[in-house]
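Bumping my old thread because nobody answered last time. Still need a sequence for this structure:
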């Protein structure tokens, strides 16, 4: 028997300390409900669960972002619904004014209402906002710029990715054109401006409608007279390249212009021939076919596209939604001297919604300018029959533009609703995964706690017994 070293007591104390430590951990886990309360509990598990927690918080925020985005879209779409109603009313007025049963005074009264409706269109466009952010004034649209080549009226949608696009143009379409410069004494001459006068009588027939202009008539008067009937003849006139230019109002249409000067008749068919009539006193340029993309397509890759006249809309690839009009001035039908345009698209103005927990998980939505100028109805005038007829066409285009924008917003709203549902499922699954890593199994931990509690009690009793063993030496010494 030894009294300096009580090995049994030391052993009992060590086991009792371990049991007490395990009991304290069980108490901590049972009281917190977590298996991992500090990195020492499970370093790898803690790292994984913290990443999951970040994802869960991000996904929950993305859900709220998507709900806010739906609210914004509903605000814009509600305003566009009223824009549609205004345009429909304007069209009714234009149709009414196009009827010759209306007097000029009647049309003037209709024009007053049209002007008020236009003002309301602009007010809606300027004031519709969500959280102080303007929605319909064009500031939420996609920006475009032609950095080289020739392209007109460029537009893009929210489907168009930001970037620079070089377009390979094969053919282009322009309207049939004839330039008329007066010939004097068999020599070539030109007009210096629209105030110049004719030196000879001029007899013109446009699609069966005849015009006679006596010598001394101003060039501007010739142009104005022809343009008064352009809606009927399909041919309009203007002053271009020091000459009177006659051209069709539609791409690819065929109209005949018969020009008679001093009883010498030259007839030109403004159709899709793309040739020069070869007359010293007249020049013609016409391609008359739909514009086409070459094999290089966009940035060297072929794409699907739609061509209506000389306007091209890209239907596939990163440039999807990009639309532009080919500037075909001075070109012939084969498009041989076309300058391929490079168009840069930016999304600085487009609305971007963060709909995911990570970088790049966003959705961009462009809302075009919905004010009267952008819709092409700013100068609608129904005070004359011809003006009312033109107004119907302009308003139809505006209605189509608004319809396209509303359809785009509706599609995005439906997408966001599915996004919210998917985010909810992702949050649920991640929380379940995190729970399996971080949460404590209460039944198992309670069993461990009970075991350790019993061991603690027995260990305490055995430590007391071990400490009592050296006292037996006193009995030996006493005897």
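Sorry it took so long. Here it is:
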């Amino acid at each position: 028997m030894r009294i300096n070293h009580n090995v049994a007591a030391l052993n009992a104390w060590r086991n009792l300390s371990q049991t007490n430590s395990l009991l304290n951990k069980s108490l901590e886990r049972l009281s917190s409900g977590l298996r991992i309360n500090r990195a020492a509990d499970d370093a790898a598990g803690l790292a994984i669960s913290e990443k999951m927690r970040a994802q869960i918080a991000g996904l929950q925020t993305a859900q709220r972002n998507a709900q806010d985005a739906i609210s914004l879209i509903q605000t814009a779409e509600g305003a566009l619904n009223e824009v549609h109603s205004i345009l429909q009313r304007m069209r009714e007025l234009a149709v009414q004014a196009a009827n010759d049963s209306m007097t000029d005074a009647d049309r003037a009264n209709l024009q007053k209402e049209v002007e008020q409706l236009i003002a309301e269109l602009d007010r809606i466009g300027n004031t519709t906002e969500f959280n102080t952010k303007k929605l319909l004034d064009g500031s939420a649209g996609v920006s475009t710029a032609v950095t080289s080549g020739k392209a007109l009226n460029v537009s893009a949608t929210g489907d168009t990715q930001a970037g620079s696009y070089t377009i390979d143009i094969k053919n282009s379409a322009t309207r049939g054109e004839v330039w008329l410069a007066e010939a004097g004494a068999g020599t070539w001459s030109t007009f210096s401006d629209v105030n110049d006068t004719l030196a000879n009588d001029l007899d013109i027939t446009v699609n069966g409608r005849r015009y006679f202009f006596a010598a001394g008539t101003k060039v501007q008067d010739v142009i104005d007279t022809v343009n008064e009937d352009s809606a009927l003849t399909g041919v309009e006139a203007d002053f271009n390249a020091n000459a009177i230019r006659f051209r069709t109002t539609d791409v690819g249409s065929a109209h005949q212009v018969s020009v008679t000067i001093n009883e010498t008749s030259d007839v030109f068919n403004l159709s899709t021939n793309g040739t020069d009539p070869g007359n010293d006193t007249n020049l013609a340029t016409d391609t008359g076919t739909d514009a086409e993309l070459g094999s290089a397509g966009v940035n060297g890759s072929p794409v699907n596209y739609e061509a209506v006249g000389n306007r091209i809309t890209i239907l596939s690839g990163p440039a999807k939604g990009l639309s532009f009009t080919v500037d075909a001035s001075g070109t012939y039908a084969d498009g041989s001297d076309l300058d391929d345009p490079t168009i840069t698209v930016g999304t600085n103005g487009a609305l971007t919604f963060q709909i995911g927990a990570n970088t790049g998980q966003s959705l961009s939505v462009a809302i075009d300018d919905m004010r009267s100028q952008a819709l092409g109805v700013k100068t609608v005038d129904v005070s004359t029959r011809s003006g009312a007829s033109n107004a119907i066409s302009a308003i139809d285009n505006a209605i189509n533009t608004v319809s396209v924008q509303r359809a785009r917003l509706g599609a995005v709203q439906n997408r966001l609703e599915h996004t919210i549902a998917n985010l909810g499922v992702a949050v649920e699954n991640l929380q379940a995964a995190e729970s399996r890593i971080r949460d404590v199994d209460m039944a198992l931990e309670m069993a461990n706690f009970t075991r350790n509690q019993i061991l603690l009690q027995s260990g305490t009793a055995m430590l007391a017994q071990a400490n009592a063993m050296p006292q037996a030496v006193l009995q030996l010494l006493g005897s």
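The chain has nine helices and 20 strands. Let me know if any region looks off to you.
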